[in-house]
Write a structure and sequence with these properties.
The complex is a heterodimer of chains A (476) and B (335). In chain A, 65% of the residues lie in helices and 6% in strands. With 476 residues, chain A is mainly α. In chain A, a hairpin with a 4-residue loop joins strand 3 and strand 4. Chain B is mainly α and 335 residues long. Chain B is built from 14 helices and four strands. Chain B is globular. The chains are: A mainly alpha (476), B mainly alpha (335).
Amino acid sequence: MDALLLSRIQFGFTVSFHIVFPGLTIGLASYLAVLEGLWLKTGRQVYMDLYHFWSKVFAVAFGMGVVSGLVMAYQFGTNWSEFSRFAGGITGPLLTYEVLTAFFLEAGFLGVMLFGMRRVGPALHFTATVAVAVGTLISSTWILASNSWMHTPQGHAIIDGRVVPVDWVAVIFNPSFPYRLTHMVLAAFIATALVVGGSAAWHLLRGRSHEPVRVMLSMALWMLLAVAPLQALVGDAHGLNTLEHQPAKLAAIEGHWENHSGEGVPLILFGWPDMQAETTHWKVEIPRGASLLLTHSWDGSIPALKDFARADRPNSTVVFWTFRVMVGLGSLMILLALLGLWLRRGGRLYRSRMFLRFALLMSPAGLVALLAGWMTTEIGRQPWVVYGLMRTADAVSPVGALQLSISLALFILVYFLVFGSGTYYLLQLIAKGPQVDEGLLPVDGGPGQTRNPSRPMSAAPDAVPVLAGLVHPMRS
Amino acid sequence: MGIDLPLLWAIIILFGVMMYVVMDGFDLGIGLLFPFFKSGDDRDVMMNTVAPVWDGNETWLVLGGAGLLAAFPLAYAVVLSAFYLPLILMLIGLIFRGVAFEFRFKASPERRGWWDLAFIGGSALATLCQGITLGSFISGIPVHDGRYAGGGLDWLTPFSVFTGLGLLATYALLGSTWLIMKTDGLLQLRMKLLARNLSWVLLLFIGAISLWTPLALERVAARWFTWPNLVWFMPVPLLVALAMLGLWRALRGTKDSAAFVYTLALIVLGYSGLGISLWPNIIPPDVSIYAAAGPPQSLGFALVGALLIVPMILMYTAWGYWVFRGKVRRGDGYH
């Protein structure tokens, strides 16, 4: 394997691990804000119990997001030095703002949110939770501004072979940014709702049908019902935006090789795009489907892969399928939400084992769809790293294949070990489930104390009670 | 624009790196000292002396990386790709160390040994790689046309390995004097003995590196040993000697924080010594901060955020240390 491919695999691997955790924290932070708001409004203890329970999961996910993010901040230089040299003038300040926002949160509000319940009044505590939720969204905004600029660059000049920002507003609010940001934030909400709903289903299947578990399932399904169909609309708009700005990516997603005048463009449901043969094998297609969907006309045409030089085509085989995985899972999510609505009559929601099994199976679907969506958009941008400005092949560091093989092997080993342990711990936390009245036991801690916000993981219990018997007596 | 943006950013990044070295130094040092203390209770105390503060440190490392990309994209690109393997290994060491920290507290006792090992290994790997990077950074990085022009293993030289070992000794000393301040009884006594031995080792390294660099690098010799620089920079070695004497006195005395303060002084002096040798180059031997700086629009935009938030981080960090002042004893668990 050559250095370019190794670097791409390494980046894809580390960023895929990373994105799962911010995906969860973005969704959970907003969920926690809603829970606390409902608690303040209704005074029902169950909302505080759920708040207490999910804030521990949030804390661990936040901690792992920070650790895996450290690697990201360095890889742009270690592996993509030519990219950083060329585009650092724009991506650097945006990344700096993202980092500063995250630390601002840690220093300001995370501590109050995780450890301050007993020290500040409920109103102030709620403010802190909302600030953390808004903060995660601001962090996403910076990163997605940077990423979107790489897809649809504007607001810059190129001077002496390097990008110079001319108009920061244009850089940040580039054409694909609003779509990408909305799509990603909704994806995080959906992924979280599915994890929350799936854990409730797991507990219900085991006969634990107390109030917090039922409220958890119900809230997750309302959320899904509201957001999953909305996501389909936003995704569609994002697709039209891609058609306008990155037509080669869209052609690759559709497996669409050439236009025949007067026939319109068929919608290929399934098939196997072949980059060598320049065709899509074993197609199952709806005649004129893509014309109707994408151009809203009977025989409108869209740019086809053969309109682009071979060297400028993204890999259609891959993005064709990652896109379909995302859309397929999205459809199942809408189905789950509708089934849930139907089963609410007579409270069958909490009893139907078939439905609960479906919800349990779907719990990782949001994260899988999120990863599939990112693969579609990122692999679909190829062969460019900054669309139309710099090719990925020109962005890579002058580092040898041997060193890259070593680092990639180490990353794979360490990530599975470290984040495997972390995920195991998260699952144990979730398996313990929310307890009635656990919200009456606030967690104490703060800056300078052993539990503190710069170690978000310290907000979670030191050992899950399942293992309590094995734990050193001093620990309890 | 009237503001010297590259200079301001160089100061911010130099400050950030120094904060990192000082603060992560003592908790990496604790990982390095772990093998000398086999008892689980001692290890618990040692870890609890940093539990509340340790990872504010990684803040500075992430900020340093992002700030370098924003302000000096050329330096970020050249330096990070030149030191590919040591930096990747450092990151892996830091991940292990950080996660071991959390999971050691959460794991069952039979698994705790593994996380102890991960803590020791991670700390040692991260420190060694930082020292090696530092050494080869001082030696200079071949740059051609704004790109790294050396080989993949250029960082591996006798000098860089020597500075790597030197940094191990430095962090271990910093860790042991931190523990003298934060513990008492037998553990503190053993730390004092250890610190005394480590101070001799460090003195050896300081002496050797102070001779080795000007002998090997003409530009460093020219910076220090020409008139009138000789006069201006003379205080640095004198202060090093004074700090070392102070450290030895402190190790015999009863004021428990003094040894840590003198070690900090030694590190700050060493850091300024390096600064004097290299200034104003951000990629030694000859790429200056001005040559490596990004466009002023980028530096100015990022500066606004840094000036707003960095003081907040500093105040917050100081508050954390203030709350956490005083000794940590056996059984003062983390909750």
